[in-house]
Amino acid sequence: MERILDTLREKGASTALILGFFVAWELFCLVANISDILLPRPTQIVAALVKFWPAIWPHTYQTLYTTLVGFSIGVAIGLFLGVLIGSSRLAYDTAYPLLVGFSSIPKVAVVPIFVLWYGAGTVPAILTAMIICIFPIVVNVATGIATVEPELEDVMKTLKASKLDILWNVSLPRSMPYFFAALKVAITLAFVGSVVAETVASNRGIGNMMMIASSSFNVPLVFAGLFVLAGLGVTLYVLFSLIEHRVTGWAHRKTDLASP
Amino acid sequence: MNAQVRSAEAGTGAAGPAPFIEFENASITYGKGARAVQALAPTSLKITEGEFMALVGPSGCGKSTILKMVGELLKPSTGYVFVAGREIGANPIRIGMAYQNPTLLPWLNIRDNVMLPLKIVPPFRQAFRAKRKGEFRDRVEALLKQVGLAGFAEKYPYQLSGGMMQRANLCRALVHDPDLLLLDEPFGALDQFTREELWAVMQDLWLSKKLTVMLVTHDLREAAYLASRICVMSARPGRILDDQIVDLPRPRTIDMTFQPDFVELNQKLRAMIVGARGGTGIVSHQPGTA
Ligand SMILES: Nc1ncnc2c1ncn2[C@@H]1O[C@H](COP(=O)(O)OP(=O)(O)OP(=O)(O)O)[C@@H](O)[C@H]1O
Ligand SMILES: [Mg+2]
Predict the structure, then answer these.
(1) Ligand 1 cavity residues, CB under 6 Å
(2) A38-256 belongs to which CATH class?
(3) N or C: which end of chain B has fewer CB within 10 A?
């Protein structure tokens, strides 16, 4: 508890900014007398969230599920490709142009293709979340691995270390800060992927719920969906930040010196 | 693998002990075609076991290239390099290496950093799990003590000064009892006093372990203080211009480096390198001359 208070105090300014944002929003709607069909007030949104929670929950679960499954597969593939590409100059030069090509496709545009292949439902959402995660992970991990100091590599090679030894003892740990930076980007992107897919082609999930709510002009519910998404995104981001700090604390220690 | 094997008898007899490292017209050319650069001209060189050999010469003459060949990081473009009687790629010896850049792993503390070779090099590798908390730990501790880092095992690299990191780097190069130590300007980035202190540490290590050392350095006092033999190289493409034994008594001290025979050796080496660079050795700043 004390620690939470401590963090709150530390983050006082940003907490105040967030609270201020919602208060300003509330006041603006009240003063300008804006209809809740256009822009509902935060209090109305929270009310809708509470009122419709039993209906919202299954959608939340669905979105969280598709996002996490897609994200996990995407991270696994991304990590594998990143290690592969980062460990070999040849693979790097060969595969990089193709990867850049893939990455420049707006991932949302592939949803119809997934629907064509798998029909509307859970699978396209998972695949979209997956494919959107892969690129940032690959690039970051490959960079981390490819930038191992040549002197260190020489030292390892004179010890007759195998490629696997070098990967396990040097390259992989070294690329962890890059990996976690990419994870935080990827989890946010994964939500974008799954929600877009749900909006287009699913009968479940927060995206789908928001579509239905907007077509029946239940605008507070639409915004409640947004709040849920923001909540999920922030929670996972914080989770990964915490893991990151535990695993790759060594990369941030220089900043610790200032505040012992 | 059909590596050449030198017969052990070849070197014995009247010619003295078989060379531990032997270059036979070994040359290195970097790049291909029009962009090919010959870094090392065909070079023949013999190093006996237990020697402390220093390589000096103008910048870019191929000193690091020679070390890389001995360390099996580079194959000669022509000729052969034999280590312990076998062509490189097949030699069974253990090698330790240290560069000017300490390259300690920032996520490991000093103990684990120094222990890294034990995790990789046989036969330590096989016993690593069983002995990391016991025998290996004591081995690292003893080594750290020898270089003046006792009590720093739990610290992380970022908590150490440059000189301390370089000491730890030396420990990492020595922990697996190498038969051969390759040092590429290991003290180059340090201040004069730390450097001189580490010379003494290095000399003690060499005297106590009797290993073969190849040291690349730009500091002629360093070469004369540490080495039992100094090779001077020409500008690129590198050749060995001069090869001489330093038979000053051991253990050498810093004070000795200011005595006449030492200074004379230094000046001789300096003159040779200046000559190799194609300069006069007189630094002049005349405007208009390129
Ligand atoms: N990977 C490489 N590709 C192309 N040329 C190289 C490469 N490595 C070294 N060279 C060239 O080979 C020559 C010898 O390099 P080397 O690193 O052995 O020099 P050095 O004697 O160690 O120099 P210094 O004292 O400055 O460290 C240099 O002229 C350099 O330009
Ligand atoms: Mg060099």
Answers:
(1) B 30-31, 37, 39, 59-65, 236
(2) mainly alpha
(3) C
